[in-house]
Write a structure and sequence with these properties.
With about 475 residues, the chain is α+β, with helices and mostly antiparallel strands. The protein contains 13 helices and 20 strands. It is elongated and about 100 Å long.
């Protein structure tokens, strides 16, 4: 057994260590020795050196679990079916350094030689005794929380503009976003291509009357697409006047998010991605892992960062009461602006859980630069009408029909036009973009479109009733006398 040998003669080679970071260190810094465990002569470390490295990791990232039910607040009972939480320390050692069980036991035994006497003398459990159990401790996210709290305070109470101090705080939180991966190696940033099966986003609008519903069907792109800047109200991910695309991955989510009153309609359009978009998936962000060796110098920082991001996603996605929206949306609006402009390569949007569906479905936001929708082109002179329903022999049929009546194009008349210099003043005066208050500007698409509305897939939902998922909370009331004694 390794633990019976003198420490000066016990060496472990890189081939007996599975952790890649430690293996490389032993290769580079070890001396050529005969390995006690495999018998081969190659670069090796003294077992004591490996044991110290393991001890540092365990003391920083793991905690000893209670060895008795009473230590966890249970009333002791001999017949209690109780199992100690965690894993045996030898299994923990084996896991973090990727060692065979006999090597891990040798490391544990070497550490116990250093701790057992003090534990016995102090009357506490040997932290490296064979019966000691450990579980992973909670990461220390205080530093990241401090940055986030500072950022929230800065945006809410000091300046509404995205200042330098706010960017420094968000750089610390999101600076390495493009390199974050889950345990499975999946990036939190996903690219949606026009050829993907999941290339469709849905967007819903509330129509409070038949007239509003008709107008949406007559002008589907203008009414179902993102609003023009002058009509863009402040939302979770945008400030007032900044038009973005709020949508969902499912039509039903749009209906839930619309929060439409009974008697109204929700009109849902299906939009297809026509060019690649890069989207940050907040659900994947909650699964980000350090993906480093426990022994890497950056492991603690990465691990704490990953734990903080899980909390941050909950903060960004949490429900906001209508009366608090203007104030509480300020931090997420600034985060959205940061993600849209300060991340490289550039992000086009965010996917996050829908609070209105108890986080079962997901919303999508495309930032302003990626929110353009292709115009719905009709031949010149086309007359569009909407039939809201009709009576038949079997009763009233409420299906809606949109008619597009085209007219033959007039034959061109050949005329010899007089040559003249173009009047640029007239051209600029007639261009809607130069007059942002012109209602025609609402129909313009700025930049290259990202989405295309499928006018054949528009759905209309009549809201007949609204149901709520609720949880009952008990209420107790007590009265106390002046001497604070209940009666």
């Amino acid at each position: 057994m390794a633990h019976e040998d003198d420490s000066d003669n016990v060496y472990i080679c890189y081939g007996c260590i599975g952790d890649s970071f430690l293996k490389d260190e032993v290769r580079q810094e070890g001396s050529n020795r005969q390995c006690h465990f495999c018998g081969k002569s190659r670069e090796a470390w003294p077992l004591d050196e490996l044991a110290e490295r393991v001890r540092d990791v365990i003391e920083e990232h793991f905690e000893v679990t209670p060895s008795d039910p009473s230590d966890e607040g249970f009333v002791y009972d001999r017949e209690m079916d109780w199992e100690r939480r965690g894993e045996p320390v030898a299994d923990v050692i084996s896991g973090i350094a990727e060692l065979d069980q006999n090597v891990a036991e040798a490391v544990r035994d070497r550490l116990s030689e250093q701790t057992s006497w003090d534990a016995h003398d102090g009357g506490y459990e040997d932290p490296f005794g064979s019966d000691t159990y450990y579980e992973e401790g909670r990461p220390d996210t205080a530093g990241f929380h401090e940055s986030w709290d500072f950022f929230r305070s800065e945006i809410k109470t000091h300046t509404r503009f995205f200042g330098r101090s706010a960017q420094v705080a968000l750089d610390e939180i999101f600076g390495d976003l493009a390199n974050l991966k889950t345990w499975e190696g999946e990036s939190a940033i996903k690219e949606v291509l026009p050829t993907d099966e999941a290339r469709f986003f849905f967007r819903g609008r509330v129509a409070y009357s038949g007239a509003e519903l008709r107008d949406m069907l007559l002008k589907p792109v203008q009414r179902l697409g993102p609003p023009p800047w002058r009509l863009a109200r402040a939302g979770r991910m945008n400030a007032a006047g900044i038009s973005v695309f709020y949508g969902a991955l499912e039509a039903d989510t749009c209906v839930a998010e619309a929060r439409a009153p009974v008697g109204s309609y929700v009109v849902v359009g299906r939009f297809e991605v026509v060019k690649p978009v890069r989207i940050l998936d907040l659900d994947l962000l909650t699964k980000v892992a350090a993906n480093l060796s426990w022994f890497h110098p950056q492991f603690t920082t990465r691990s704490n960062h990953a734990a903080f991001l899980r909390k941050l996603v909950e903060e960004i996605s949490r429900p906001i009461m209508p009366r608090d929206e203007e104030f509480e949306y300020l931090p997420t609006q600034a985060v959205s602006e940061y993600l849209a402009s300060c991340v490289e390569p550039r992000l086009d949007g965010i996917i996050f859980h829908s609070a209105q569906t108890a986080r079962e479905r997901r919303n999508v936001v495309l930032f302003h630069h990626a929110a353009g929708v292709e115009p719905y082109a009709l031949p010149e002179g086309t007359n569009v009408s909407v039939n809201m329903g009709s009576w038949t022999d079997e009763g009233y049929e409420d299906s809606i029909t949109v008619w597009e009546k085209t007219v033959p194009a007039p034959k061109p008349v050949r005329r010899k036009a007089a040559a003249r210099r173009p009047n640029f003043a007239e051209i600029f005066e007639s261009t809607p973009i130069d007059n942002p208050n012109d209602e025609q500007a609402d129909d313009l698409v700025y930049g290259e479109p990202t989405l295309k509305l499928d006018v054949q897939e528009i759905e209309v939902f009549k809201i007949k009733a609204v149901t709520y998922t609720k949880a009952r909370r008990s209420v107790s009331r007590y009265r106390h006398s002046e001497d604070n004694e209940p009666f």
